[in-house]
Specification:
alpha+beta; 10-stranded mixed sheet; 16 helices
């Protein structure tokens, strides 16, 4: 019975729910919205398809980028492996090349030594001159007149101005120094190319040396490498300066040269009379705990004294004075209000005994120069005797002799070449040394002005010979033919000759650079001279050439 009632109820409910009047408008709206629904579904489908295509494209791009990165990493790895292999082969090739080059140079040096005594010097020379065209006399004369004389005319006026100012500055320096404790400064002297009238390269720089002496009762005791004691090869050309009391005898006893035992006593010198290194010695510009004069201490004292002296007299002048170069303690520069400037070097020196040889505190450096052994080693300069020798020989030469002209032209060519290819081991002092040797070797009449071309070739060949042998001896040291009129100290004439090219033996890189620069200068000589030469008619040039032949 309950089941029957449940079925009847269910049937009634179903009939009510499905009756058309219960949802009267449902079936009526379906036909009206169907097309709109279909259109929206198509639009949705199209948007989904486009989104799918976009996602597929992004996935494809990411895959391509990943493949490119993997390929690049592979290429970099392969490049590193190839570079490692190439660096190894390069290093091996360089080692082999260096070994061959060292063997070749040793072999050539051995051959030079073998043939040097068998052939005439001038016969084995001239290899570097093959294919080199030397300017004739007319071209050289025109070049010298235009380039050399045209730029050196104001040197005399500059020397006069610098010397006058230096004298005033040193007088002020003496007034600010303590006469009882400071060094005694003497008058300055001009040396070098500016005072020998052969400087051609600007800027013109005057070189002045200033002798100084210790205050009383002290004195300087100088010792050189050729005074009897053994000096290492790298200390040849140097000396030491010992500060002693004037009444102290340092020559007759060896107690100051030999370290005595604690239980030993010198019978000649008691401990009371012996000068001991102290703060007093340091006040005398000595190296710490020694009696030897320190070049660095001297330059510091000199710079301070010059600064004080300038502060005292600066109101008298309408220019400024300053130290111009850090590596040259004595380099000064005068700066005018117009912007122009004049440079000069004021360097303290110590006189060797009663001669005109001087110990110089600082010497101009070059790429060939070796390091100074220590600040207690002073280089010897013979600049005063060199100037005197040139002046003495000039009296015996023909009028308007060409020796200075040759040196000026050679200095100009070398300076121009170095400005193009960089510095070399040659300096103007080496070139002047070549001229001094030829002045002594050649007869006086060979230096007539019309023989400028021949003498210039002789200087170049002599320089080539010295480079070839790596030997250029100092003109005065070991030269027994120095004129007696100069009063040159005999101790240096009897010394072993000093080879100025000795560093070439130790530094092959500098030697090779120097030789290459010299050969390049020979090849460029005509071009460098013609650049500063007034045009000369060809007929005139040929006429002079035939006349000389």
């Amino acid at each position: 019975m309950p089941v029957g009632i449940f079925r009847v109820c269910l049937l009634v409910i179903t009939a009510i729910v499905n009756h058309p009047l219960f949802f009267p408008k449902e079936n009526g709206t379906v036909p009206e919205n169907m097309e709109e629904i279909i259109q929206k579904m198509k639009e949705r489908e199209e948007s989904l398809r486009l989104e799918q295509l976009r996602l597929e494209q992004e996935i494809a791009d990411q895959e391509a980028t990943q493949k490119a990165l993997e390929k690049a990493a592979l290429v970099v790895e392969e490049t590193k492996e190839e570079k490692v292999r190439w660096d190894m082969w390069t290093a091996l090739s360089m080692v082999i090349f260096l070994l061959i080059e060292l063997w070749r140079q040793d072999f050539q040096e051995g051959n030079w030594q073998d043939i040097g005594g068998e052939e005439d010097d001038m016969a084995v020379l001239g290899k570097a001159f093959k294919g080199v065209v030397f300017p004739n006399k007319a071209v050289l004369a025109s070049f010298y007149e235009k380039r050399i004389l045209g730029t050196t005319g104001d040197m005399a006026r500059m020397r006069e101005m610098v010397e006058g100012f230096a004298d005033d500055l040193l007088e002020a320096l003496r007034s600010v120094c303590n006469r009882d404790a400071d060094m005694e400064v003497e008058d300055c002297m001009g040396v070098g190319s500016m005072y020998e009238n052969w400087r051609v390269r600007k800027p013109f720089v005057c070189d002045l040396i200033v002798p100084f002496a210790p205050p009383e009762p002290y004195c300087f005791r100088c010792q050189t490498w050729c005074s009897g004691d053994s000096f290492p090869p790298d200390e040849q050309g140097y000396g030491t300066i010992k500060v002693c009391r004037a009444d102290e005898d340092v020559t007759g006893c060896i107690c100051d040269k030999t370290k005595l035992g604690e239980d030993m006593l010198c019978l000649l010198h008691s401990q009371v009379n012996t000068t001991k290194p102290s703060s007093e010695m340091e006040d005398l510009l000595c190296f710490k705990n020694t009696q030897y004069l320190d070049a660095d201490q001297v330059m510091k004292w000199f710079q301070i004294a010059v600064t004080k002296a300038w502060n005292r007299i600066s109101h008298k002048y309408e220019f400024d004075l300053s130290f111009s170069l850090l590596d040259s303690p004595g380099a000064l520069k005068i700066k005018f209000r117009s912007g122009k400037s004049i440079a000069f070097n004021l360097t303290p020196v110590v006189q060797y005994e009663n001669s005109d040889v001087y110990f110089i505190s600082h010497f101009p450096r070059s790429s060939l120069a070796t390091d100074v052994p220590s600040s207690t080693h002073w280089f010897l300069t013979f600049a005063v005797y060199e100037r005197r020798f040139i002046h003495l020989v000039s009296k015996t030469l023909p009028a308007n002799a060409c020796h200075v002209s040759c040196l000026q032209i050679l200095s100009f060519l070398h300076g121009k070449q170095c400005s193009l290819t960089g510095p070399s081991g040659l300096t103007n002092y080496h070139l002047k040394t070549v001229m001094l040797h030829l002045l002594q070797a050649c007869p006086s009449q060979d230096w007539a002005p019309e023989k400028l071309e021949a003498r210039l070739q002789d200087m170049l060949k002599f320089l080539e010979k010295c480079l070839h042998e790596k030997k250029l001896y100092h003109f005065f040291i070991g030269n027994g033919k120095v004129p007696a009129e100069l009063g040159f100290p005999i101790i240096f004439q009897r010394a072993e000759p000093l080879n100025l090219f000795r560093p070439f033996v130790l530094r092959r890189d500098v030697y090779r650079k120097t030789v290459d620069t010299f050969h390049e200068m020979l090849r460029n000589m005509s071009a460098l001279i013609n650049e500063y030469t007034v045009h000369i008619p060809l007929a005139h040039t040929n006429g002079i050439r035939k006349e000389s032949l």
